[in-house]
C-alpha cells in the first residue's frame, strides 16, 4: 500500500454551513504533506475527520487501509496528534508529561524508559526532565508536546499548526525533527501558515473555504500555477505604487512583498512599460526585475482567482 491516507470527496456540513466541500487527496507513506489555507478554511475539520473525531457528512477516507467512519479505534493507535495548543500539563514536570502520555497510549512498561530517553534526546530536553513544564520556553514546550505525541511510535503524525508562536530558531529545530521522523518512515500531515515551511514539504494541498484549490509539489506549484509573470519592484513609496500599478491594464495584481512589491503581470511583460509608467507618476524606482514566483505569490494568485469567480 503506497498511500498512508486516502481521502475521497470528503464533505462536512455543520447545519447548513459547508466547512469542507468535496475534498480529495492522498498522502504517500513517509511523505511530509503540507496542508495550507487561511484561518477557517477547514484544515482542522479535515484532520478531525481523519482521526475519526467527527463523522463526514459524505465522502470516504482510509488511513492505513482502515475506514475513517467505521474503524477509528484501529486508526487512533497508529496516529500521533499535536495541535498549536500543545495539550501539556503545565504543572507536571517534563518527565511526568511523558509518563502520562505513555500511559494514555498504552506504551508497554518495559519500553517506557528507553522511549523517554530517546524523546528527551530528540527534543533537546536532556537535563530538563524535572523542570515544571510551565517554566519551559515556547520552543521546548513545543518539542515536548511533539515528544508526547510520538511516544507510542505512531505511523502517522498529524500536526495542526504546530509551529505557531515559537521563534524561528525553535521552528528550524522542530522541522529538523520532522525530517528525521519522515526519514524513519513516519507519514506527516502538517497544517501551517508559514510559506517557508510549506516549501519544505514534499507535497502541498491548498485549502480555501472548504475547497481544495491546488495539489502539487512546491516546485510544480511555483512553475505551473501562475499564468503570467512576477515582477519585483523596490520604490520610494510602496503603497502609492501598488495603487498605481493596479490601474495598469497588463497588471493583474500588486502586493507588498518584504520591503518591495510583487506585481503579477500578463505573460511577456515589458519592464520598460512598467518603469515609464511609474516614473511618469513621480515614483523613484530603486530596483525592478522579473523573478520566479514564490509559494506566497502562488497562493495570492490562487485566492485572487477564486475570489474573482
Ligand atoms: N463544530 C463546529 N460547528 C460549527 N462550525 C464549525 C465547527 N467546527 C468548525 N466549524 C467552522 O468550520 C470552518 C472551518 O473551521 P476549521 O477549524 O476546520 O478551519 P481551519 O482551516 O483549521 O482554521 P484555523 O487555521 O483557524 O484553525 C470555520 O468557519 C469554523 O467556524
UniProtKB/TrEMBL annotation:
Pfam families from the UniProt entry: ABC_tran
Source taxon at top rank: Bacteria
ABC transporter domain: residues covered: 5-234
Keyword list, A-Z: ATP-binding, Nucleotide-binding
Molecular function per GO: ATP binding; ATP hydrolysis activity
Organism (species): Sedimentibacter hydroxybenzoicus DSM 7310
UniProt cross-references to InterPro entries, sorted A to Z: AAA+_ATPase, ABC_transporter-like_ATP-bd, ABC_transporter-like_CS, P-loop_NTPase
Residue runs in coiled coils: none
Protein's name according to its UniProt entry: ABC transporter ATP-binding protein
